[in-house]
């Protein structure tokens, strides 16, 4: 948090400097415009006097001098206006970048809270439900599912879903189609044409492998996004990767715990039976 505060102070300081430069440039430009007007008026007055009488050499020299001064001021004004445009462009770029950083910080803060929730329980079903809520709130998923790999039979099966029924999801053999291939390679998949995508359970809009190091235990498949989510931002791709790692660890730990609890219960039952 100290680093973020320091970045915010630096950002605010630079923004203030940009505003000061812009303000001074604007004030100086106004002064130049006023000076231009005054000199132009003086030139016109001399030119009118010249029409009424034979111009003296000194008047001609004064007109030339004033015209030269006007040209110099015009050049200075042009340079200052160009610099102001550059500062405005830099300021706009800085403001946009600042907003992006704020959004990224907010997303990462939300992901931190979500990952804390994920690792706060060892209940398998509760972990799956937390993952579904994270995908809705952070990613903007509308119809999506979590499919886990059956290590023994080498196929993926739906275990939890939002916006659709788990029974609607087909069982996918490892290496088969988009889902099976992503589960086999461990790579993320995003459809090229997000707007033109038509829902197909075997070819999702997004497929993110759930990996522990290089070991894939399942995938997150997304078939549609919420109405307000028309496209993915750069930060979304980072979130997918981070989420997949945390989700995989939480799922693996909760499954392991559930299995050990069942085994312990079975052993305890066997011991009780033997001791009676």
Overview of the structural elements:
By secondary structure, this protein is α+β, with helices and mostly antiparallel strands. It has 2 domains: 2-116; 123-264, 2-Layer Sandwich (Beta-Lactamase). The chain has 5 helices and 6 strands, in the order H-H-H-E-E-E-H-E-E-E-H. The protein has a 6-stranded antiparallel β-sheet, sandwiched between helices. Helix 2 runs parallel beside helix 5 (234-275). The longest helix has 62 residues, at 57-118. The two termini are 60 Å apart. The model has no long low-confidence stretch (mean pLDDT 80).
List the keywords.
6 strands, 2 domains, single chain, 5 helices, 276 residues, six-stranded antiparallel beta sheet, alpha+beta, Beta-Lactamase
CATH architecture of the largest domain: 2-Layer Sandwich
Q: Radius of gyration, Cα only, in angstroms?
A: 34 Å
Q: CATH-wise, what's the superfamily of the largest domain?
A: GAF domain
**Number of structural domains:** 2
Largest β sheet strand count, sense and barrel closure? 6 strands, antiparallel
List low-pLDDT spans.
Answer: none
Order of neighbouring strands in the sheet with most strands: 3-2-1-6-5-4
Strand content: 5-15%
Order of helices and strands: HHHEEEHEEEH
Intertermini distance: 60 Å
Average residue-wise pLDDT = 80
How does the overall form come out from the CA principal axes?
elongated
How much helix, percentage-wise, in residues? Answer: 55-70%
Return the CATH topology of the largest domain.
Beta-Lactamase
Number of helices: 5
What structural class do helix, strand and pairing data support?
Answer: alpha+beta
CATH class of the largest domain: Alpha Beta
**Extended strand count:** 6
């Amino acid at each position: 948090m100290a680093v973020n505060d320091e970045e915010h102070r630096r950002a605010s300081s630079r923004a203030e400097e940009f505003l000061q430069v812009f303000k001074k440039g604007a004030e100086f430009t106004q002064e130049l415009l006023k000076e231009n007007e005054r000199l132009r008026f003086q030139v016109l007055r001399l030119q009118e006097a010249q029409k009424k009488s034979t111009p003296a050499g000194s008047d001609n020299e004064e007109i030339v001098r004033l015209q030269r001064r006007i040209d110099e001021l015009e050049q200075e004004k042009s340079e200052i206006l160009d610099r102001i445009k550059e500062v405005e462009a830099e300021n706009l770029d800085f403001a946009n970048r600042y907003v992006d950083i704020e959004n990224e910080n907010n997303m990462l803060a939300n992901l931190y809270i979500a990952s804390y929730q994920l690792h706060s329980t060892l209940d398998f079903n509760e972990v799956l439900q937390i993952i579904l809520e994270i995908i809705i709130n952070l990613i903007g998923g509308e119809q999506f599912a979590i499919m886990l790999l059956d290590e023994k039979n080498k196929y993926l099966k739906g275990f939890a879903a939002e916006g659709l029924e788990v029974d609607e999801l087909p069982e996918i053999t490892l290496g088969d189609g988009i889902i099976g291939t992503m589960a086999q390679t461990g790579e993320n998949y995003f459809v090229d044409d997000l707007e033109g995508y038509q829902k197909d359970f075997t070819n999702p809009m997004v497929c993110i492998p759930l990996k522990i190091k290089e070991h894939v235990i399942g995938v997150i498949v997304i078939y549609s996004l919420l109405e307000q989510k028309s496209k993915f931002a750069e930060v979304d791709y980072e979130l997918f990767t981070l989420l997949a790692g945390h989700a995989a660890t939480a799922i693996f730990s909760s499954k392991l715990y559930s299995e050990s609890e069942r085994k312990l219960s079975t052993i305890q039952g066997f011991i009780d039976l033997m001791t009676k």
